[in-house]
Known about the structure:
Elements: E1 2-7, H1 13-22, E2 27-30, H2 47-55, H3 59-64, E3 73-77, E4 80-84, H4 100-114, E5 117-119, E6 122-129, E7 135-142, E8 145-156, H5 163-168, E9 172-176, E10 180-187, E11 194-199, E12 202-209, E13 213-221, H6 225-230, H7 232-243, H8 245-251, E14 261-263, E15 268-271, E16 274-275, E17 278-280, E18 286-287, H9 295-310, H10 317-346, H11 352-362, H12 365-376, H13 387-392
Parallel strand pairs: 1-2, 1-8, 2-5, 3-11, 8-17
Antiparallel strand pairs: 3-4, 6-7, 7-8, 9-15, 10-13, 10-14, 11-12, 12-13, 15-18, 16-17
Helix pairs in contact: 1-4, 1-9, 2-9, 7-8, 9-10
Amino acid sequence: MFDVIVVGARCAGSPTAMLLARAGHRVLLLDRSGRGTDTLSTHVIHQPGVAALARWGLLDRIRATGCPPIERVLYRVADIRLEGCSGGVDGHEAAYAPRRHLLDPVLADAAAEAGAEYRTRCTVTGLLRDDAGRVCGVRAKHRGREFTEHARLVIGADGMRSTVASLCEAPKVQETPRQTCAYYSYWDHESSRLELHERPGGWVASVPTNGRKTLVLTYFPQSSYEEVRADAEKAYLEQIRVTAPAVYEELHGSTRSERLRGTGHQENFFRQATGPGWVLVGDAGHHKDSITARGITDAFVQAESLTEHIGGAPADETSLDEALADFARDRDILMAESYRAALSAARLEIHPKRLSLLRAVQSDPGLTSTYFDIFAGIRPATALYTPQLLARL
């Protein structure tokens, strides 16, 4: 019998399994995919996530994949140009955007090294329950063969369409309609900074990643999804040309190295985080539009928070339930700011008052740094309203 079964071995599940194993728990980590498979992602790990990787002893492994540090950010909207960097976290000022087929194995291998039993190509088909109805394990398949495993706690870290959440009938306690649809691809073009370009109805991001390639993402209003998907190639290039003409010119003559990928199913919700014998982390419990690229970093934050609440030793059921309830309350508080930020950006609207604020920000390097701190989730939005900014306004 295990102490914990973690379902999902990506950015939420693997760090959770690793940290719990390091804390002394007997952990089983299951994933339905094979090791090193790719997945839809904006890739960006903001500075709070980079600092977590450093605490875990994994940052050098990410650097060893050849992923370049992102030390500068450029943001353009209307006549405004902000360029600079954040103040960083624990001395880590750079962000990183590793390819997921490189990042996810680093995290899963770290969980296995910590003592977690890691099994790939395992599909969870049901949950085991005791006589009181408490979840006490999983039923799963591996290459057609069924098996069961028991544990005191089952953790769903299996993404937005979480099987564990569905089997637990975890309700959505907060939900906002979808705001955007997104399409992206990779280009044989080396860039040195993260670029964000915005206009009413459009958003383009250019992100340095592994292999001296640049990830270029485009966002459209959700209302235009059917029209965009009808000719996604044309819509993708036109969005870059109109919203980020400088990026469009830089890509001229470059080769797109991979197929176009996209989705119109970016849900925005908080699910009930926990119940008797189960808990949800990462996108399984809380998902938001990817436009602010907070998903990976927020998954790391939740993994650390859950581990801190559970503690180092297996707890009795009452103590465990109390710890999980505390985690759920903290999750809602920790994720509230990034949820609001993502929904605000995903509306793809530009208000005159916001432009006035940004014009004041661009004239002050200190305010610009604070703005990028807010973008990275280091500081709350209220941090921008300094006496200097209010005087300029």
